[in-house]
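[Automated response] Your request has been received and processed.

Submitted sequence:
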Amino acid sequence: MRTVSDAPALHDLMPWSVRPLRIGRGWPLAPDAACLRARWALLTGEPDAVARAALLRPSRARGLYTAVAQLPGHRTPTTALAREDGPCPEPVRVQHGPFDQQWLIPDHRLIDVARPELWRVADDHQVFVIEQGYLPEAAEPAVEFSALLPDGRSPAGKPSRIRPAFRRPGGVEPNLAPGLTEWLAAELDTEVSAEDVLAWIAAAARPGPGGASVPLPRDGATWREGLALGRGSVWLHTGGARYADPAAGRDPERLRLPGGARPYVRAPLPAAPGPGELSYDPDESALRIGDGLISPVSPDAWELTGGGVGALEQWYERRTAPGEPGSLEGLRPAAWTRATTSELLELISRLTLLAGLRRELAGFAERLAARERSEHGRTAGQVAELRAAGILPVPAARRGPASVLTHHEEGPDGQFTLL
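Generated structure:
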């Protein structure tokens, strides 16, 4: 009988992948940019070297005197942190785990393993595919998507892989096995773009202990169904930043539920909620934060998980957990702001829509599996077909980053680095 191993691996279809970022310390990341600037001011305002090092939280990779180059695209100082007295580098928005967006100080001196190759290709055209670590007990898709640079963090601690859709800035040179789009176009007798293949992966990728696999379409009807589901998936995961199409109901950067399903604040939220104050009332379809109340909130949104952990609970915990006293992480946002509430309402809407999409994706996966069973003995395995077409194995050079240096990147202490 044919097995899932007959479907090509995502590792082969999107051959270039990068391991998750490793920041090495928690304080350069926060849900509020102003909080990061305050933490930076405390660090750089500390005159005593021993006390400054304690605030930094040095590691084997980073200390007060570590010499490193700038992160691509960010003109931050490269002098030793022991001598740093300038303003905080402008924080940038990043994707933290599956469903959270946080602010990060983009300073290479603070990040143990920053993956500069990802920063070089992060732009308004890029889509990052995050292949999730295998969690057989969690009914979750094999892949998530982000328009922002992702840290690749998994709440369950399972290692993920980050696969940029494009190897160069500007949406140039798709990160696909050479010849794949042409092969699909011939098989389906239709035009196939790199964006189409990414949408198909969003719909068809399935998890497995050896990594995600992607059964390829055999007919035009299945292909079109997968494209519609996949485009919706990327659109939802990126908050409308990618694959927007108002004609198809995918408005740019505006995810809205139908009128009666939109969540609203029904009772004011606390000014400074603390850990343990979040709960869900299934009878009222309401989210409670202390004496505050938001409704309607569907059970789907409350129960949806990312990395095996409740998405709403994780989001709330990261905004209310107290940091260690005396540490930079202990400096938290002073209050729960209107912007925080708006972000929560948007997240509830997105999770509600994603829960419905997950059910559609599960049904699509069952139909693909049934098709594979029916084809047993009548068609060759797809891996064999791709090998016969010369698409597999993928050239070794495609598994590494492209050379994309188009400007000088400052190295340690103001020297320029070459790539």
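Summary generated for your ticket: The longest strand covers residues 92-96. The chain has a mean pLDDT of 92.
If you did not submit this request, please reply to this message.
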